[in-house]
Amino acid sequence: MRQNNIIKYLKRTALWFYLLIGSLIRYWLNHPFETPAIIRFFLKKAVYIPKFTKRNVLTEKEQFNFEENLDRVTHLYQKYGNKFNAKYKDSYTKLDKLLTDKEQILYFQIRKYRPSIVLETGVAAGVSSGYILRALKDNHKGKLYSIDLPFQWYTYGNHELHLDSLPPGRNSGYLVPDDLKTRWHLLIGDTYQLLPKLLQQLKTVDVFFHDSEHTYKTMTFEYNQAWPHIKKNGLLLSDDIDFNHAFNKFIKKHSPKYFVFKNIGVIIKSK
Ligand SMILES: C[S@@+](CC[C@H](N)C(=O)[O-])C[C@H]1O[C@@H](n2cnc3c(N)ncnc32)[C@H](O)[C@@H]1O
Fold first, then answer.
1. Which of the four pLDDT bands, split at 50, 70 and 90, describes residue 58?
2. Which domain holds residue 57?
């Protein structure tokens, strides 16, 4: 039994390294000018990689904590939801101290907007997906479409190399409780291929949430793709708007009504 577990663990870890190294080699071949950033990453951060492989034994606790967080946000909404108006800046300022986890704002917005279709890019463990799906469940309405491609490398800021990965043996959205999955369509693949196709198929969406690769190029690509498909009075949301100027440039171009909650940008499409 113990021997089987060890073999299983070794297999998982080997597959994890294969995905990690394979994706890094692909990134390196496509971005040879980022070689110094790759070398810097290994000198500074590669020491954490073996520690990260052990995370698969922690995920049950992580799952339990996450389900508790979902219960907590439902209670917070029951208490403060009637004072929240997703279209007023004041509402966001009031929630700033109350909501400890920045993705909780997604729950509040989805409860208020009662959307039929939500589309998000970037799932990873599934924190944002979980909050959105819990809100849809509590609304008794709506579907979530998510796009994710794990094991991605990219550079941001001053050529800092960044890795988005999953713990060994885990798939995108592993934190999402099973009872929330009935309203969920999870697509695995590159946003550059899947997002345009999905938008064509859905035609319109009520809420779009960017949380995939936070580079200027990808953020701008996703905002521009999604914008024409967002319904009047719908929302364009983006995480990590402080990574580059993509969000600010988009605001300048379209001059919409917008707010910033922690570092999530919220745009209301009024036309
Ligand atoms: C910041 S994480 C998502 C976090 C998640 N929304 C949450 O709240 O926990 C970004 C995710 O986007 C994925 N990703 C990066 N580039 C992508 C691409 N080109 N297409 C699809 N997904 C991508 C990453 O692998 C990672 O799983």
1. low
2. 2-268
